[in-house]
Design a protein that fits this description.
Length: about 270
């Protein structure tokens, strides 16, 4: 398979606000191409807002986001969607839509004026349904599914888009631990097999450190630290950003940094 063309997604002096209240201010960030980036930070730190800015779901108050040197707001919707797939935190499915139909909507940016489905579309939809463990749900209404099942279906739709960049806001929400691992393995597989650039907001620090090539710590709407997990996920960084007293030790499975909280009752 031909690898995707390299892409440069970056934010320059980006400021994002809700009703005049600045949540992200003067932020600079470059997303490593062809790698997995995890964005972490305490609640209300601006990490989901940052992702919305990168996904052009919010108009900047100042600064800009560019893709290959071009302001993302200058792309036509289909043109942008062929390059960047976006899964927001709480997507809403149309009433009565079936799983297979929803997933097939991920192919919409690749269809011509008449919107007809091709054999490639059908093949890709079948592949992602199988890969996400949702093939047996294909003929069910999305509204009938559990939260975890729905989340996997939305992931399938995003992957069906076959965009070079995938932006996901808390994709492990509603999933139990085993399905969280399955999902992150699936995103890793897409990254390794298709060269997909993955950017995801995660709450679980140890999973972020294990699966990401590049970690971004957001605190107070600014970048507190960014780089490889081993360099970023230190006791000092975690303490400063999260107010968490902890020990950082190698993960016995992956060798990545593993955060062990201390708490008030287990100090040496």
């Amino acid at each position: 398979m031909t690898p995707p063309a390299p892409h440069a997604l970056r934010a320059d002096a980006l400021t994002l606000a809700y009703d005049g209240r600045r949540v992200v201010e003067g932020l600079d960030l470059e997303i490593p191409d062809g790698r997995i980036t995890a964005v972490v930070g305490p609640n209300a730190s601006g990490k989901s807002t940052l992702l919305r800015g990168l996904a052009r779901l919010m108009r900047p108050e100042a600064g800009r986001v560019t893709l290959d040197g071009r302001d993302i707001r200058s792309f036509a919707p289909k043109e942008f969607a062929r390059r960047v797939a976006v899964l927001p935190q709480q997507p809403v499915a149309p009433d009565g839509v079936l799983v297979a139909e929803l997933v097939s909507r991920g192919r919409h940016p690749h269809r011509g004026w008449f919107g007809g489905r091709s054999s490639d579309d059908d093949r890709i939809v079948a592949e992602v349904l199988e890969a996400t463990g949702t093939a047996e749900l294909a003929d069910r209404a999305v509204s009938e599914l559990s939260g975890g099942q729905r989340q996997r279906v939305w992931i399938a739709m995003a992957l069906a888009q076959r965009a070079d960049i995938v932006l996901l806001d808390e994709p492990t929400s509603f999933l139990d631990v085993s399905h969280q691992l399955e999902l992150l393995d699936l995103l890793t597989e897409s990254n390794r097999e298709h060269g997909t650039t993955v950017v995801m907001v995660l709450h679980e620090l140890n999973l972020a450190a294990r699966y990401a090539d590049h970690l971004v710590v957001v605190d107070g709407g600014r970048i507190a630290a960014a780089g490889e997990p081993a360099a970023v996920m230190t006791a000092e960084t975690v303490g400063a950003a999260f107010g968490l007293d902890c020990v950082v030790t190698p993960d016995p499975v992956a060798g990545s940094p593993m955060i062990v909280p201390i708490g008030r009752f287990h100090r040496a």
